């Protein structure tokens, strides 16, 4: 303990956060509520042919959703760069204008091309918004409070994801336009704190031109140590994205929900467990336990905490492999959620700590790339594995005991691979030195080539099978673009630290106690 620490009165963790931290979290709650509320029923609205829905084909709906989701993954890179250059508050105003306009216009867009444009406006606003809030959290926390601060941030996200769909489930039965009007009103209200309460957190002044800002954003790809960590962490998110595909199908095709339904019926609650409740189990577990988990892990450095969380999440999938009991299923999802809430806030915390002071938001923008890799590989490989190994045994769990066990253990093992890789990363690349930068650059050059190969493989594979899915094409194109740009940046540009030959110890900055 330093002399300053010994003589300075300690504040409680909650009181240590400045006003900008709390305002940013409130805005995150409302924006995520708007987004997840709409997305809870968007696929139904697009494809239903009755009740005022659009009645689109699944292909058209899939293409639209694929574009929208891709924008929310990629735009944060641009949004982060612009926020670091032009100011967080100014870009918040732009983001809320696009979000509110996109949602409100969607309420009255009755044609395919109209809803496409209005939702694209919304996605552009969401992409600009994301890195501003995570960047604010990074700038208003310290290495001591960062883990807990991002834990609260993640709690806000999941509280919005839990509550808003419950409200939307009532509103959409009245009129589909109410869904978009509700979401638009949520973001419209956030103009008030953005105008009257929010102030930019302290950050270095920037006088760069727009072209210099964009070039600086691309240079982040040459920060090979950072990109290697993002890639390793993305492996864990292959497990996460099973919650939107194979986990739902497994519940539908192999599990008897009667014991859970009877349990709630005994308490006077008419609940029929179905695939839509997987998100409720996930978000509900995080809402109830996130603060406790954040307090427990607040003194654990980010990388070890991420390893612990990935390990716990992997155990959740091993639990799915143990039994076809619906209660074991619920337990497995809950345990995975505990792992998720242990590692993911620390992931943001780590990036916020190691990112250069003048590029907090742009680094936070790149942090969202885990979703591209996780969803592309997770959704496609998981789906093909399910249809090959489990689908032939639908409705007969006792005849597929070995197949079910092997299926879920495969994903559990992948989680352990991610945890082990992160352990190696921490030991080998923990210190930022010329040697670790050179080694990580060689590794990431290979990874960028793999990005191109994987993206091309998915497109050619589905083309050969005659079932090219628009969402896969878009995600694959993103993977290929990142790979090509990464190769170009690695060959043509050097990260600024490479030129300076500076050496820092990332693990020191990552300590929280």
What does it look like?
The protein has helices at residues 3-7, 19-47, 58-86, 88-106, 112-139, 146-174, 177-189, 191-196, 210-219, 224-240, 246-254, 258-265, 277-297, 302-322, 326-354, 360-367, 370-389, 401-429, 434-465, 470-492, 496-500, 506-510; strands spanning 431-432, 504-505. The protein is mostly helical. The chain has a two-stranded antiparallel ribbon. Helix 3 packs antiparallel against helix 4 and helix 6 (146-174) packs antiparallel against helix 13 (277-297). It is globular and about 60 Å long. The model is unreliable at 1-10 and 501-513 (pLDDT under 50).
Shape: globular
Distance between the termini: 10 Å
Which spans have pLDDT < 50 for at least 5 consecutive residues? 1-10, 501-513
**Helix amount:** over 70%
How would a crystallographer describe the biggest sheet? 2 strands, antiparallel
Q: Biggest sheet, strands in spatial order?
A: 1-2
Count of extended strands: 2
Strand content: under 5%
pLDDT averaged over residues: 87
Radius of gyration, taken over Cα atoms and rounded to an integer in Å:
23 Å
Count up the helices: 22
The succession of helices and strands, N to C, reads: HHHHHHHHHHHHHHHHHHEHHHEH
**Structural class of the helix and strand makeup?**
mainly alpha
Question: Summarize this, please?
Answer:
The protein has 513 residues and is mainly α. It is 77% helix and 1% strand.
Supply the key terms.
single chain; 513 residues; mainly alpha; two-stranded antiparallel sheet; 22 helices; 77% helix; 1% strand; disordered N terminus; disordered C terminus
